[in-house]
Write a structure and sequence with these properties.
alpha+beta; Heat Shock Protein 90; 3 domains; 4-stranded mixed sheet; 32% helix
Length: 385
């Protein structure tokens, strides 16, 4: 880094990618900064720059000690250790040490006390909420929300007839024709963990999944006009049950609250929906299968005069972007649900659902709200006169 570039960065002030420090003498404190950057996309620590951007250059003896401190902090005070680089940049009669922390490949990182840190604007923040820690492990593909066991559940909560029908479709064999016990079959399919059903097992095959996971449902409201009203609505419903039931009920809610057009159909025909049915099938199925099951919130469907919004808890996983999904790319947040969903929903996986929806109805917007931790699909309706 050239001196002029460093001074330009200092003049702009701290942000989520640049942290200033007059000095660094504590390995633990430095490790916390390194952990925060490694968990948040990487960044640089400038030692010898004050918070206001003024230079407090270091001298030879300080630089040697600091570089040893950086090595110690990044290897013995960070779990797992991370390779950082340091660069001595000449400023005035001394130097500023620039420590570059890469976006970590071994996320989530912790300090030596086991604490997780992330960047929060120009500062750092200790992560304490269980759901957020779970999401960090989920983003690293170390755990999956649909694979978590649900305490208080058991094999007795499985709707056996529903599971028998699925098993025959999935494996082309009757459940009673194979030698394993029901418990072993469910365990092998990652629907049972120990004595408890997993989230996937519960949402796919339980008699009453919302008895144990009441927040995982669909909340649907049809409003007059183009804005949310505090009390005025045309139709509303809270949709519970297994994923298949939630899908069918959500689809029914959408189709009964949009316009149907006669077109060239006969007078006795029900007509065609203003938005093709397959669009809703693909978008609702994707919302149910790919939502973040570490977020305690329902899927929300809002119908307005000018648009329809389908809001899923959890932003796009990992580095997936809206441009990626528009090109057919995908990332399986819930691999168990994804692998079995095609037998209970019109879901084909492989990132093709969004493409099919766009092919049938291109006027769809996607918003990946990482700050709000949600994914919003906006189906724009045609203006009616």
């Amino acid at each position: 880094m050239e001196t002029t570039e460093l001074l330009e960065i200092a003049a702009r002030g701290e942000d989520s990618k640049h942290q200033f420090k007059v000095e660094a003498t504590n390995a633990t404190a430095l490790a916390q900064e390194i952990v925060a950057f490694a968990n948040s996309g990487g960044g640089r620590i400038f030692v010898g720059i004050a918070d206001d951007g003024t230079a407090h250059e270091l001298y030879a003896a300080q630089v040697g000690t600091l570089n040893q401190l950086v090595a110690n902090a990044s290897t013995t005070c960070v779990r797992p250790s991370i390779n950082v680089t340091s660069e001595n940049v000449s400023v005035g009669s001394g130097v500023v040490v620039v420590v570059t922390v890469p976006d970590g490949l071994g996320k989530p990182y912790q300090d030596h006390s086991g604490a997780f840190w992330v960047k929060n604007g120009s500062d750092k923040r200790k992560v304490t909420a269980r759901e957020e820690i779970q999401r960090m492990f989920q983003n690293a593909q170390l755990v999956h929300g649909d694979d978590v066991r649900v305490p208080g559940t058991s094999i007795a909560d499985v709707d056996l007839e529903v599971f028998r029908e699925f098993f025959k479709l999935r494996f082309e064999q009757e459940l009673d024709e194979q030698s394993n016990s029901l418990g072993q079959v469910l365990t092998n399919m990652r629907l049972l963990n120990g004595d408890s059903l997993t989230v996937a097992g519960l949402m796919l095959f339980a008699k009453a999944p919302n008895q144990f996971l009441p927040v995982f449902h669909v909340k649907a409201v049809c409003y007059p006009g183009s804005d949310i009203h505090a009390s005025a609505y045309v139709d509303s419903a809270d949709l519970y049950g297994r994923i298949q039931q939630q899908f069918e009920d959500a689809l029914g809610f959408l189709l009964r609250n949009i316009h149907w057009e006669q077109g060239d159909q006969g007078v006795n025909s029900t007509g065609l929906p203003e938005i093709p049915r397959i669009v809703f099938e693909e978008l609702v199925a994707n919302a149910l299968v790919h939502r973040d099951y570490f977020v305690s919130a329902p899927i929300r469907i809002f119908i307005f005069d000018n648009r329809i919004e389908i809001i899923s808890p959890g932003h796009l996983p990992n580095n997936l972007t809206v441009a990626n999904i528009r090109s057919g790319n995908s990332n399986m947040r819930n691999p168990i649900l994804s692998s079995y969903a095609n037998k209970v929903l019109p879901y084909r996986g492989l990132g093709t659902g969004i493409l099919r929806a766009l092919k049938e109805y291109p006027n769809i917007d996607f918003i990946d709200d990482r700050e709000g931790n949600l994914f919003r699909v906006i189906v724009n309706r045609q203006t009616r006169h």
